[in-house]
Please model this.
Amino acid sequence: MKRRLKELAELVGGTVVGDGEVEISGVAAIEDARVGEITFVANPKHLKMLAKTHATAVIVSPGVPQTDKPLLRVTNPDLAFAKILTIFSQKPYQAKGIDPNAWISTTAQLGQGLSIYPFVYIGDRCRIGDRVTLYPGVYVGEDSSIGEESVLYPNVSIYPRTVIGKRVFLHGGVVVGSDGFGYVKEGRKNVKKLQVGTVEIEDDVEIGANTTIDRAALGKTIIRRGVKIDNLVQVAHNVVIGEDSILCGQVGISGSSKIGSNVILVGQVGVVDHIEIGDNVTVGAQSGVMNDLPANQAYTGSPTLPHRDFLHMAAILPKLPEMRKTLIQIEKRLKRIEETISSERKRE
Model:
């Protein structure tokens, strides 16, 4: 497939500088691009590579001056490149049908145009929407539903009574609907609290490999529309993740916490139970969230502080040994002064 540069510009809302009739047949990183391919420069420090790349055209930000190569100027080169990459990489969906080695309950309701691979299990009373893809080893427990055009990669486990929306992507090893971690002490004995709720994943969610979403103790664990979750993330029972939020690798969210919309939790953030995080909050890497976080701010640290306050604290930390030394010296001087004043009073 080939596209003229001016056609790509129309698709991403950009402006061509140079020959808009050149044909583009693919995309590549700036150091690997060949003739016929388009690349991008998102970071100004990489502009020096424009003269060296073999790409036919380059996606750049508006301030980049004209070169001997055609340019596609856009406000966000990274976003434009992502969209163009999709154009050249995505193939039209072709249904593979239902493999005879899949086990499907006679009470399951199946949509049209399915791709169900060998060794898939679909339990009683499940509902599978149109154009769903289930790769080998997928388990779908009874009374669960999967919306149209969703893709479940190998060895995904969907426990009973789970609801999955449209265009949801679950990568290998994801577990949705496992029991929440609920126990009560009876002396030394741990008594299990049955987890009888469900999980609901709304449309356009993507969940990375080996992430777990626990079912609610009562009610629902909810992942709202457009949420993106990285690999190795733990979402506990009764958690609610707001629309368009991002959870990076190794984030852990404890039970009954509420995460607002458009929230970003960077890698290894930990959230204690029954916490509320407001909309448009960003929490820095390895932070520990122990209190509610108001909306529209950035936070860092453990326990979390507003990011600016954390930076001030971080700037002070390396100076603490010297400050301690100075404080000890001041204490000694003060003690000598007090002793001198005391002895003079006695002589009087």
User: Anything to note?
Assistant: Residues 320-347 form the longest helix (28 residues). DSSP finds four helices and 40 strands in the chain. The mean pLDDT is 94. The chain has three domains: 3-89, 97-309, 320-347.
